[in-house]
């Protein structure tokens, strides 16, 4: 789920942290990556007969076309879409660094069943994105605004938390109904499957997490930072600095002051842990 | 005479048990055996590419194998699945693992590949990210990175 870490408008980028006035532009750009076109999707999910019918259709499609989509397929499709727009940064050293920090944080989640994969998106806006089953991206712009490794670890930890809690798929189900995979498979029979998937991809990129999910991700992120021996104030410092000139996002992230207060409280009165500022600066050039 | 069947039955059962232990070659450049089915687990042994390892146990993504006199877990995707080689008169064929296992952790699935073809995007770029991640883990670079920065599950120690 791509979601703004920080937002300035009422339009939030789903799952990432979008900072500054470029948020709307970034949201639009990322949304286009999903290019939601195609057929309307029935969002009603309470009719059991429809569900039964859908399941029957799904089974038939799976048997004949082997098009059984799952949340990992959706996550992968989001990741692939982002390679087209906004595109991936190819800097090997920087990618190794971001991946290493991400894996360090991922290693303390207790979720070795998730193959976390990290990438860097082109663009000057500060943003981070997560997609189902562990695809996590951060923009070059966000990296350029960070001061040390613990801030990077904090932002990645926030995204990792969204994946661990499956917030993206939850948000998608909330918007589209609970029978996402049934709908995809059923639609495959009409050769419109990719249009539906494209809508889902666009949804995930644009999803707005609710404040409870954001609070949840923040709290979990600080827990991960502590477990990985990173300075647990990393996320709070980055968010505080970037939000200082930003307007509160009413739809997604919690009110700024409240959010920062909670992050500080979670970090504790006498935070310890590594910042690794020198290592960060040796790799991340402004 | 009735008792004489017992040892034969036991031998037969043992033979079946032995035959049930599959062996698979290591497909990756080298693999690290870990104490737990977890890519971040403590390393206890290694095995080179091409080494044939007995698979003692498996779950969805990991296989418990033996190497260097030790037992440990590696990713299923590090092992080369035995493909079915149906030949006339050759009897039943054995297929080790699901066909999909070979792709686990190594790249995108067919649905995402098809999506990319239909809607744009470059699956190879995501494959490259996945390969980078696996390389960092498998070569020990990640462990070195953690130790140098004093971070990780055990503070980099």
Give a summary of the structure in a few sentences:
Chain A has 13 helices and four strands.
Question: SSE layout and pairings?
Answer:
The complex is a heterodimer of chains A (286) and B (157).
Chain A: E1 2-3, H1 23-34, H2 48-65, H3 71-84, H4 92-106, E2 117-121, E3 128-131, E4 135-139, H5 140-144, H6 149-164, H7 167-176, H8 180-188, H9 193-206, H10 211-227, H11 234-243, H12 256-267, H13 277-283
Parallel strand pairs in A: 2-4
Antiparallel strand pairs in A: 1-3, 3-4
Chain B: H1 5-20, E1 22-25, E2 30-34, E3 43-48, E4 52-58, E5 62-67, E6 70-75, H2 110-119, H3 123-138, H4 141-149
Antiparallel strand pairs in B: 1-4, 2-3, 4-5, 5-6
Q: Any overview of this molecule?
A:
The complex is a heterodimer of chains A (about 290) and B (about 160). In chain A, about 55% of the residues lie in helices and about 5% in strands. By secondary structure, chain A is mainly alpha-helical. The longest helix of chain A is centred in the N-terminal third of the chain and has 18 residues. About 20% of the residues of chain A have low confidence. In chain B, strands 1-4-5-6 form a 4-stranded antiparallel β-sheet, with no helix packed on it. A two-stranded antiparallel ribbon of chain B has the order 2-3. In chain B, a hairpin with an 8-residue loop joins strand 2 and strand 3. The termini of chain B are far apart. At the A-B interface, helix 3, helix 4, strand 2 and helix 9 of A face helix 2, helix 3 and helix 4 of B.
Low-confidence stretches of chain B: 10-18, 84-105
Number of helices of chain B: 4
Radius of gyration of chain B: 20 Å
Adjacency order of strands in the biggest sheet of chain A:
1-3-4-2
Radius of gyration of chain A: 19 Å
């Amino acid at each position: 789920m791509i979601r703004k870490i920080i937002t300035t408008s009422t339009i939030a980028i789903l799952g990432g942290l979008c900072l500054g006035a470029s948020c709307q532009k970034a949201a639009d750009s990322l949304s286009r990556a999903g290019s939601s076109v195609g057929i309307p999707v029935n969002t009603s999910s309470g009719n059991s007969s429809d569900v039964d019918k859908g399941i029957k259709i799904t089974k038939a499609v799976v048997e004949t076309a082997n098009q059984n989509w799952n949340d990992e397929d959706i996550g992968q499709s989001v990741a692939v879409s982002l390679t087209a727009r906004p595109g991936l940064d190819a800097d090997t050293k920087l990618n190794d660094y971001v991946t290493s920090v991400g894996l360090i944080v991922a290693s303390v989640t207790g979720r070795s069943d998730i193959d976390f994969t990290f990438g860097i998106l082109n663009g000057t806006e500060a943003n981070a994105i997560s997609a189902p089953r562990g695809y996590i991206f951060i923009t070059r712009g966000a990296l350029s605004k960070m001061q040390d490794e613990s801030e990077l670890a904090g932002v990645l930890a926030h995204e990792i938390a969204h994946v661990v809690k499956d917030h993206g798929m939850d948000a998608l189900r909330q918007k589209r109904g609970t029978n996402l995979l049934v709908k995809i498979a059923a639609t495959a029979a009409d050769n419109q499957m990719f249009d539906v998937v494209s809508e889902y991809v666009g949804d995930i990129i644009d999803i707005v997490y609710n404040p409870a999910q954001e609070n949840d991700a923040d709290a979990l992120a600080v827990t991960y930072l502590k477990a990985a021996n990173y300075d647990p104030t990393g996320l709070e410092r980055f968010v505080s600095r970037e939000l200082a000139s930003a307007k509160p996002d009413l739809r997604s992230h919690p009110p700024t002051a409240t959010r920062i207060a909670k992050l500080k409280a979670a970090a504790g009165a006498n935070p310890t842990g590594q910042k690794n500022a020198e290592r960060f600066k040796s790799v991340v050039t402004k | 005479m009735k008792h004489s069947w017992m040892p034969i039955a036991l031998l037969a059962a043992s033979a079946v048990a032995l035959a049930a232990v599959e062996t698979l070659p290591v497909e990756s450049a080298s693999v690290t055996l870990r104490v737990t089915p977890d890519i971040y687990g403590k390393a206890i042994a290694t095995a080179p590419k091409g080494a044939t390892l007995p698979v003692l146990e498996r779950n969805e993504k990991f296989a418990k194998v033996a190497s260097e006199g030790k037992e440990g877990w590696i990713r299923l995707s590090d092992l080369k699945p035995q493909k079915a080689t149906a030949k006339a008169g050759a009897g039943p064929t054995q297929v080790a693992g699901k066909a999909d296992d070979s792709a686990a952790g190594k790249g995108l699935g067919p649905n995402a590949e098809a999506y990319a073809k239909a809607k744009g995007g470059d699956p190879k770029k995501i494959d490259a990210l996945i390969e980078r991640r696996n390389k960092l883990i498998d070569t020990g670079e990640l462990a070195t990175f953690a130790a140098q920065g004093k971070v990780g599950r055990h503070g980099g120690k």
